[in-house]
Write a structure and sequence with these properties.
The protein has helices at about 35-50, 70-80, 110-120, 155-165, 185-210, 225-230, 240-254; strands at about 1-5, 10-20, 20-30, 60-65, 85-90, 125-130, 135-140, 145-155, 215-220, 235-240. It has about 250 residues and is an alpha/beta fold. The strands form two sheets. Strands 3-2-1-4-5 form a five-stranded mixed beta sheet, with helices on both faces. It has a five-stranded mixed beta sheet with strand order 8-7-6-9-10, sandwiched between helices.
């Protein structure tokens, strides 16, 4: 079995893959202050609750956009899975992938994993929209190359900034309101964020298709992708496990 881990700025998502099927997956909050020992306690507890035997894990692949957590995770994983092969996604392995990576030392490893999974599922002329801490748009062109990325603040990041910078606007649950015309403060913020971001998403897709002269298959992923995807016909499909799927694919090429 393979353990795949995606360390993001807000959440750490990881799952157990056996014969290309996910038999269990988890999402925990990212905490840069936690030590290797503290993360070991969390992983050990979740694996035990999920009835996963640690000795059955033969391989581990992980990516991180939080540099300070790479060493603690290496230490934790080495101690918890003594017989498993551990691979870290980094620019050194990009030459083995089926896609060409633009600016390998500047693009996030999670975006590379997304691109690999999308390419394997949908081939070229694909855009991956990842609704995470940042809202990212990664486009894979007809020559199997990552053509470029657009980045905007994520939905939750925008809501947090709005609440933090104003005296009377609260944190709100991120969900589509009943109307674009908000009749209370919560619905007003939901309208601006949800419908505003839907317009942002559609605009980036349209501009990208115009620039490359191709129609794109658009794949959404990330925790809040399920909120926006139903509101626009521009998004072809929602793939919540896309990043972890990409890590499994990358591991097969190493």
């Amino acid at each position: 079995m393979l353990l795949a881990i995606d360390i993001g700025n807000t959440n750490i998502v990881f799952g157990i893959n056996r014969n290309n099927e996910w038999i269990n997956d988890w999402r925990i909050q990212t905490d840069q202050l936690k030590t290797a020992d503290e993360y070991e306690v969390i992983f050990r507890s979740l694996l035990t609750a999920g009835k996963i035997c640690r000795t059955d894990i033969s391989g581990i692949i992980f990516s991180s956009v939080v540099p300070s957590l790479v060493h603690p995770f290496r230490e934790m994983l080495s101690g918890l899975f003594e017989n498993a092969t551990i691979n870290l996604v980094n620019p050194d392995i990009y030459k083995h992938l089926p896609i060409k990576v633009l600016n390998p030392y500047q693009i996030g490893t999670d975006l590379v994993a997304n691109a690999v999974a999308a390419y394997q599922k949908f081939n070229s002329n694909t855009m991956v929209i990842d609704f995470g801490t940042a809202l990212t748009f990664t486009t894979i062109g007809s020559n199997s190359e990552i053509l470029g990325v657009a980045i905007a603040p994520g939905l939750r990041t925008a809501v947090g900034a709005l609440a933090g910078k104003t005296a009377q606007l609260p944190q709100i649950h991120i969900a589509a309101p009943p109307s674009v015309l908000g009749e209370n403060t919560t619905h007003a913020i939901q309208s601006g964020i949800i419908f505003g971001y839907t317009g942002l998403v559609e605009s980036i897709i349209e501009r990208t298709e115009t620039e490359i002269g191709q129609t794109l298959t658009v794949v959404a992923t990330g925790g809040l992708g399920s909120v926006i995807a139903p509101l626009t016909k521009k998004i072809t499909t929602f793939e919540p496990m896309l990043t972890l799927d990409g890590l499994v694919q990358i591991n097969s090429f190493i």
